[in-house]
């Protein structure tokens, strides 16, 4: 540690400069700003897909600020909650705006995060050395889902109540500890005041704290290794005379203005929804939630909010009959690993034993389909975390992949959207079969990725980024 | 430090002991916090078994008590009502309550009348379809929304599921299961305890 050294400024320097110097001697303010944004060099070939990170940050701030003001009027009490939300909507001056901003913000957050993840998928942003950025991002996604789930109970409407009831009962499917676990989560025999109170605590303080920490980790990791770009080229391999990558520009002012432009477009769309369609046809705010939660009467059709429906569809697709298909799929996958992978025999044997246990467990006499539905439901989310290790493609960006890879991605996107749509609909036999096909494709996309992602004829990746000055 | 290679075993011992003590305190605190998630004494009291005196219950009379936020019916069936169960045996979906017995039928009620004593039915009055509360239709014979050979039972007004006098769901109805029979026991000849049986609390 060097001795304390005061920054020497000429006596006629502006007061602001002196003040900054005084602070910088005691706290790395300028350094933090420059490292994290001001002199953070980012590739110059970013396209519109790269706006969603900043937008997610904006929505996070929006959710926290509107959330703080909502807690000033909301009452986390089963007897008062529903009416306190109506009170915010009707009697608190501008309360309806704050509440609609918060509820629309939740959906906007998921739209942005899904697009942000799509960007990562298209351009291989999660590839080495950015695996940890992806994992932090994945953890943020889990936190967001938890935030959304806990927050959805708070208005204490019918859908809040029964949605929570259904999801908490999912834990009851776990053998042995299940029923006690659901009881422990609820703190009562039915979803009740105790449940509402603890969900409120999670929603307003516990999860947001973790979320903020993870966002910081996500950004620190990103600014440590540097951003990727649509070409998937490591710009740091071509340094200029000034020591900065030739293909990079400082984030400020260049990406500051880009982001501000993106923010203005986003805010136009966001305001349009807040003011003209806050319910978004029942997708952002479900109609059943305008009825107070009633433990003695179930709504006719319980559907989660749209951002959970792809995974919820996987849960519903796992019917007793479908278990046989899944057993066959697991067996086929193990055979495939034995024949096609270069893993050591020990690893292969471990995989085979686990698979055998799973297949035995899938027999209707052992564990019922409800339990496996929960397993595949969780698996469909968690599998995203493994992407950096599943993708073996020699190039990062989809731009230089074989053309048929684009169709695989398109098909994956389509099956994800189909699952999402089906999750909002009441199940029928035909719809269940479609969702089962999509579920199989969803998992195959990831589980077979180590092989298909390396197949085909890859295009040559240029040494410098593709960029046309405008 | 000049002597960092030298390990003072006495100090290392103390270090290990301090870490161990610290972990115990940490784990105990975490345990206390996790325990606060369990149902509180008030919730347990509200969910406690309910004792019902059925001395004054007349044949054909039904009483509803609340247990864990749910309506529980106690019905004293007349001999005709009990006899009607013979006629509905082949019309109900699951005459012997074989489906999901853990959830819907305790072992001592897996019989035609789904009860301990043939005349006393104890059932949770919530339709297994979507949780509406079925209404009593005890009078046999043709009547609106019911089949002409109606033997007496329950009708769920929401989606038309019908149940016989033992809460067994009729075939091809939206409800998948028979009405739930909660775990219960007789403390004496005329005193029922709902929510608890010889094996413990539900």
Backbone structural class of chain A:
mainly alpha
- Oligomeric description of these chains: heterodimer
Instruction: Quickly give the structural class of chain B.
Output: alpha+beta
What proportion of the residues of chain B is helical, as a percent range?
10-25%
Distance between the termini of chain B: 64 Å
Major sheet of chain A: size, sense and barrel closure?
A: 2 strands, antiparallel
* 3D shape of chain B: elongated
Low-confidence stretches of chain A: none
Number of helices of chain B: 4
Write the layout of secondary structure elements.
The complex is a heterodimer of chains A (470) and B (202).
Chain A: H1 15-26, H2 29-38, E1 41-43, H3 52-71, H4 81-90, H5 95-123, H6 131-153, H7 158-171, H8 178-186, H9 193-225, E2 248-250, H10 251-276, H11 309-317, H12 322-340, H13 345-362, H14 369-382, H15 387-390, H16 403-424, H17 429-447, H18 449-452
Antiparallel strand pairs in A: 1-2
Chain B: H1 9-35, H2 41-46, E1 50-53, E2 62-67, E3 70-76, H3 79-88, H4 101-104, E4 120-124, E5 135-137, E6 153-155, E7 162-164, E8 184-188, E9 191-194, E10 196-197, E11 200-201
Antiparallel strand pairs in B: 1-9, 2-3, 3-4, 5-6, 6-7, 8-9, 10-11
């Amino acid at each position: 540690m060097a001795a304390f050294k005061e920054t020497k400024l000429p006596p006629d320097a502006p007061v602001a400069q002196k003040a900054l110097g005084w602070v910088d001697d005691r706290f790395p303010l300028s350094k933090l700003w420059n490292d994290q944004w001001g002199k953070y060099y980012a590739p110059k070939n970013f396209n519109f897909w790269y706006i969603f990170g900043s937008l997610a940050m904006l929505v996070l701030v929006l959710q926290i600020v509107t959330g703080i003001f909502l807690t000033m009027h909301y009452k986390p009490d089963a007897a008062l909650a529903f009416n306190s939300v109506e009170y915010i909507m009707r009697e608190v001056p501008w309360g309806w705006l704050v509440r609609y901003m918060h509820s629309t913000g939740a959906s906007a957050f998921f739209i942005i995060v899904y697009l942000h993840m799509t960007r990562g998928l298209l351009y291989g942003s999660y590839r080495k050395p950015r695996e940890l950025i992806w994992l932090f991002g994945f953890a943020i996604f889990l936190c967001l889902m938890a935030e959304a789930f806990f927050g959805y109970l708070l208005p204490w409407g019918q859908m809040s109540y029964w949605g929570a009831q259904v999801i908490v009962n999912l834990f009851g499917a776990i053998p042995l500890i299940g029923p006690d676990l659901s009881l422990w989560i609820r703190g009562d025999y039915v979803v009740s005041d105790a449940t509402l109170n603890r969900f409120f605590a999670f929603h307003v303080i516990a999860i947001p704290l973790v979320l903020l920490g993870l966002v910081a980790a996500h950004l620190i990791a990103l600014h440590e290794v540097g951003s990727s770009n649509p070409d998937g080229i490591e710009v740091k391999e071509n340094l200029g005379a000034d020591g900065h990558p030739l293909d990079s520009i400082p984030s400020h002012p260049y990406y500051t203005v880009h982001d501000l432009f993106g923010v203005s477009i986003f805010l136009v769309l966001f305001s349009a929804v807040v003011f003209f369609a806050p319910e978004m046809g029942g997708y952002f705010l479900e109609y059943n939630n305008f009825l107070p939660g009633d433990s003695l009467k179930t709504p006719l059709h319980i559907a989660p909010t749209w951002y959970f429906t792809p995974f919820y569809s996987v849960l519903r697709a796992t019917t007793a009959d479908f278990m046989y298909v899944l057993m066959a799929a697991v067996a086929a996958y193990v055979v495939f690993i034995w024949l096609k992978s270069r893993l050591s025999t020990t690893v292969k044997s471990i995989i085979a034993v686990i698979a055998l246990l799973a297949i035995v467990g899938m027999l209707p006499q052992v564990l019922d389909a409800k339990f496996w539905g929960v397993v595949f439901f969780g698996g469909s989310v968690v599998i995203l975390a493994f992407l950096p290790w599943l993708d073996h493609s020699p190039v990062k960006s989809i731009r230089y992949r074989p053309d048929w890879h684009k169709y695989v991605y398109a098909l994956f996107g389509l099956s994800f959207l189909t699952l999402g749509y089906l999750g909002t609909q009441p199940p029928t036999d035909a719809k269940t079969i479609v969702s089962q096909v999509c579920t199989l494709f969803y998992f195959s996309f990831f589980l077979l990725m180590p092989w298909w992602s390396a197949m085909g004829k890859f295009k040559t990746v240029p040494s410098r980024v593709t960029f046309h000055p405008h | 430090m000049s002597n960092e290679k030298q390990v003072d075993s006495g100090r290392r011992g103390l270090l290990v002991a301090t870490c161990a003590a610290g972990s115990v305190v940490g784990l105990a605190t975490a345990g206390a916090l996790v325990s606060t998630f369990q149902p509180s004494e008030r919730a347990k009291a509200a969910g406690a078994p309910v004792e019902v005196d059925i001395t004054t219950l007349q044949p054909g009379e039904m009483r509803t008590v609340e247990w864990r936020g749910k309506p529980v019916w106690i019905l004293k069936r007349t001999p005709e009502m009990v006899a009607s169960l013979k006629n509905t045996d082949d019309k109900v979906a699951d005459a012997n309550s074989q489906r999901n017995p853990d959830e819907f039928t305790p072992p001592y009620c897996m019989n035609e009348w789904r009860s301990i004593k043939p005349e006393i039915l104890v059932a949770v009055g919530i339709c297994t379809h979507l949780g509406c509360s079925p209404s009593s239709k005890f009078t046999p014979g043709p009547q609106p929304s019911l089949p002409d050979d109606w033997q007496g039972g329950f009708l769920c007004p929401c989606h038309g599921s019908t149940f016989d006098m033992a809460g067994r769901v009729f075939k091809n109805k939206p409800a998948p299961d028979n009405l739930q029979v909660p775990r219960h026991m007789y403390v004496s000849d005329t005193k029922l305890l709902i929510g608890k049986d010889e094996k413990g609390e539900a």
